[in-house]
């Protein structure tokens, strides 16, 4: 069924992006998404907190990078727009910041116009592309027209790679992205882990897979491997709420409630 803007949203099936929107309190979700989200909440009652503090990490890390001088960002797997988006945070610090969003999800494409409203001084763009084909994404003429790869770029892979199982070559994908970035570039990531709540996360994986979405938890060691050869900045690899917490609510969350690792690394 084509629902609007010529995009087949498959409203009869639960979708991870709409489930995440639901956990964040958004309205871009439907009955199938809410049913699957309810099953997820039944096995992991704190999952809405998990989503909120993951989103808050994106805000804090983007602001920190913009304040440190990063003025170009590539956000892969951006998901359904939820304000403030990455470009809004970056352009609050530097109105001239440039942000490119990339996603292969037709649901995101249907909402992409919301990602393109930035400052007059800056620039935002949306690219329909798949993280599992990094060569095509990075060689895209549209991408190269917007981002200057001779200067540092902030690459964001937040809450994405747990949907890319090992058999798809997840580490090789990340290394491909890292290889085209110049020194001074950064890699920002968050990733689901079972290190703090193994039983609940195992059941969560089953729920997502039953809904048609692959989900792979990774340990601290497996997550840290993504940053090989780069310098992880302080405070290192930590649960999301421990990465430079900005509010008492975020700081008060437990590692179990997070169940997600976060880190930012710099290319030397």
Outline:
With 268 residues, this protein is of the alpha/beta class. It has 12 helices and 8 strands.
- What is the top-level CATH class? Alpha Beta
Shape: globular
| Mean of pLDDT | 91
Query: Compute the gyration radius: what is it?
Result: 17 Å
The count of helical stretches stands at: 12
CATH homologous superfamily classification: Vaccinia Virus protein VP39
Give me the count of strands.
8
Fraction of residues in β-strands: 5-15%
Order of helix and strand elements from N to C terminus: HHHEHEHEHHEHEHHEEHHE
Task: Give the helix/strand class.
Answer: alpha/beta
**The CATH topology, please?**
Rossmann fold
Give a description of the structure.
With 268 residues, the chain is of the alpha/beta class. The protein has a single domain, classed as Rossmann fold (3-Layer(aba) Sandwich), CATH 3.40.50.150. Helix content is 39%, strand content 15%. The protein contains twelve helices and eight strands. Strands 1, 2, 3, 4, 5, 6, 7 and 8 form an eight-stranded mixed beta sheet that branches. Helix 1 (16-23) crosses helix 2, helix 2 (31-43) packs antiparallel against helix 9 (198-210) and helix 3 (47-67) runs parallel beside helix 4 (86-93). The longest helix has 21 residues, at 47-67. The N and C termini lie far apart (48 Å). 45% of the residues are buried.
């Amino acid at each position: 069924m084509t629902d609007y803007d010529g995009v087949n949203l498959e409203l009869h099936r639960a979708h991870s992006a709409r489930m995440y929107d639901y956990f964040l309190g958004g309205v871009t979700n439907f009955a199938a998404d809410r049913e699957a989200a309810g099953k997820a909440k039944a096995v992991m009652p704190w999952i809405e907190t998990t989503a909120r503090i993951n989103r808050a990490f994106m805000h804090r890390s983007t602001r920190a990078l913009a304040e440190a001088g990063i003025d170009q960002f590539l956000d892969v797997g951006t998901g359904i727009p939820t304000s403030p988006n990455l470009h809004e945070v970056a352009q609050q610090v530097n109105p001239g910041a440039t942000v490119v969003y990339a996603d292969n999800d037709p649901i995101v494409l249907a909402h992409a116009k919301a990602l393109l409203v930035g400052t007059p001084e800056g620039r935002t763009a949306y690219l329909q592309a798949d993280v599992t084909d990094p060569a095509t994404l990075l060689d895209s003429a549209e991408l190269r027209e917007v981002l200057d790869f001779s200067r540092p770029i902030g690459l964001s892979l937040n809450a994405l790679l747990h949907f890319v199982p090992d058999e798809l070559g997840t580490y090789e994908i990340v290394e491909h992205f890292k290889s085209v970035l110049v020194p001074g570039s950064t890699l920002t990531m968050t990733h689901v882990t079972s290190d703090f709540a193994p039983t609940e996360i195992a059941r969560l994986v089953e729920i997502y897979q039953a809904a048609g979405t692959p989900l792979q938890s990774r340990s601290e060691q497996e997550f840290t491997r993504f940053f090989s050869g780069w310098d992880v900045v302080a405070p290192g690899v930590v649960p999301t709420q421990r990465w430079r917490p900005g509010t008492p609510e975020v700081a008060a969350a437990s590692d179990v409630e997070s169940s997600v690792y976060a880190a930012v690394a710099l290319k030397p």
